[in-house]
Amino acid sequence: MQEATMMASEIDTFLQECQTILIASVDENAVVNASYSPFIRMDSNIYIMVSHVAAHTKNLMDMPHVSVMAIEDEAKAKQLYARKRLTLDVHAVLVSRDEGDEWERAAQKLKERFGAIIETLTQMADFVIFRLEPKNGLFVKGFGKAYAFNGMETEKVQHVKKPHRALSDKV
After folding, report:
1. Counting Cβ atoms within 10 Å, is residue 36 exposed (0-12), middle (13-18) or buried (19+)?
2. Average pLDDT estimate for 11-24
3. What is the DSSP letter of 126?
4. Rounded to whole angstroms, how far apart are CA atoms 4 and 71?
């Protein structure tokens, strides 16, 4: 249990260090789009503010099952093939500006993290906020150091033990 608690803390720290996530979405014709967005965490979810001008916004609305990844900066990585990364399968939900205080709370947290640009973006009609609800995740710290979990229950991580194989190993 102590290892799981330490892992949860490490995942939290990693997400605090990352300011953007990569987004893999698909359109109605199953064409994949790779993009990114700055993000915040709130209430065990991830929130992003994106523009309707971007292809990923329509994709998130039409096909809400997406994959996102936070990844270690290349300049900080000891080994580029083993960069620390967190991948999450998420369900994207458009947050209404008019219902409840969720939109206002998310916009405020975005402003606290990213500054005055958020004030400008919130005044533009084409910018919307999505709540990304994690379904499951994988945190990779390096070779042989992958940990799976459900939702954002990072305190319940399980070490994924799938060893690499040499070319001489039989399948």
Report:
1. middle
2. 95
3. T
4. 21
